[in-house]
């Protein structure tokens, strides 16, 4: 089936969290859930303290879906 131009596939909550969890684990070695807890409690210092952290931060909306 051909998709229309501009097609956007909506993710389920489970898919969204999985999409977030993979790069968090890859870049930071923790689960997505643990990263969110640490991020929200300001345990991370400076945006460039760890390589890949800002890539993960940009994905935070996927962890907070619905």
Rg to the nearest angstrom? 14 Å
The residue fraction in helices comes out at: 40-55%
Shape: elongated
Tell me what portion of residues adopts beta-strand conformation. Answer: under 5%
Number of E-type strands: 0
Q: Termini distance?
A: 29 Å
Describe this protein's structure.
Helices cover 52% and strands 0% of the residues. It is mainly alpha-helical. The longest helix has 16 residues, at 13-28. It starts with 12 loop residues before the first helix and ends with a helix.
Q: Would you kindly provide a brief summary of this structure?
A:
It contains four helices and no strands.
Keywords:
66 residues
Topology of this structure?
Elements: H1 13-28, H2 32-40, H3 53-57, H4 60-63
